[in-house]
Amino acid sequence: MVKKSKGQSNSKSTVCSLELRFHKKRKDGKLNGGQVNYEGINYYNNLINEILANGITPYVTLFHWDLPQVLVDEYGGFLSEKIVEDFEYYAGVCFKHFGDRVKNWITLNEPWTYSVYGYDTGVMSPGRCSSWYNVNCTGGNSGREPYIVTHNLILSHATAVQLYRNKYKPRQKGRIGITLVAQWYEPCNVSNGDEAAVYRKLEFMLGW
């Protein structure tokens, strides 16, 4: 990772995307109440320092689909609202240890992709969907679980943003947001029905 940051400096890059890992923050994989993994903290401290030393601005993502298995086993991960408190605690650890140098935070990477591909079609981890959609899925309900996961992702995002803005932003002077993904659609015909369908599809992908 350090070599990569030097390579970016040589290629005239001025920013880079850095994604943190849940499991590098807690020794037991748990979040709230768990033991902080200071080896993981030191790893990211060194990486962030190296990135900055090469004149590159880090944009740090807190969650890019790598949920610790222990949280899935304990309460189902983002299928449970329990994840919100754990995500807030994890975000706070990151803000506390890295926020003096990191000024650009992203809570979630493409939450639509995570909820749909992980819990509707089952083509990505954790591979959940209805059996009628894909017999190889590990379980799930394509008509219900994506919406539960979406709800808890939004709550996790909102809670982390509130924590940062209220507690850390006043002295760290950073900013925080979310990475969304969408495809573009055009109505087949100039009609209220087709235009409404396009708007509805865009809302499903961008309306977080």
Automatic annotation (TrEMBL):
The keyword Hydrolase applies. GO terms for molecular function: beta-glucosidase activity. The keyword Acetylation does not apply. It comes from the Eukaryota. Keywords: Glycosidase, Hydrolase. It holds the Pfam family Glyco_hydro_1. InterPro entries: GH, Glyco_hydro_1. This is Cyanogenic beta-glucosidase. It comes from Escallonia herrerae. The lineage of its organism: Eukaryota, Viridiplantae, Streptophyta, Embryophyta, Tracheophyta.
